[in-house]
């Protein structure tokens, strides 16, 4: 399993637009076989940083999602939202592997 972590710098005056965008991507990631763990909006502290995390069974499955999403009309419409309103200033993408506890109390990657 691979988990994609996204850190966004967003326009703090357009948080509602970014939140609507995020809600679309939750469903779209799952449409292509991923498990979305949600978007995390600014609350206390920094007002222009938002996070998202989602997982795929493998890096190859994630790459397949990226290829398929590039030509999907719903994904293109979601991307067009930001192209029009520019609520995302920048973003960083990182990948992680999860660690889980097995039946002997030891945490390990799947």
Automatic annotation (TrEMBL):
Residues 7-99 form the NIPSNAP domain. It comes from the Bacteria. InterPro entries: Dimeric_a/b-barrel, NIPSNAP. This is NIPSNAP family protein.
């Amino acid at each position: 399993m691979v988990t994609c972590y996204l850190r966004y710098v967003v326009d703090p005056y357009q948080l509602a637009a970014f939140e609507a965008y995020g809600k679309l991507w939750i469903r779209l990631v799952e449409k292509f076989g991923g498990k979305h763990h949600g978007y995390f909006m600014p609350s206390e502290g920094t007002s222009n940083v938002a996070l998202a995390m989602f997982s795929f069974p493998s890096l190859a499955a994630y790459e397949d999602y990226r290829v398929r999403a590039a030509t999907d009309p719903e994904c293109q419409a979601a991307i067009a939202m930001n192209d029009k309103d520019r609520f995302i200033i920048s973003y960083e993408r990182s990948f992680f592997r999860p660690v889980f506890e097995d039946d002997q109390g030891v945490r390990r990657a799947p």
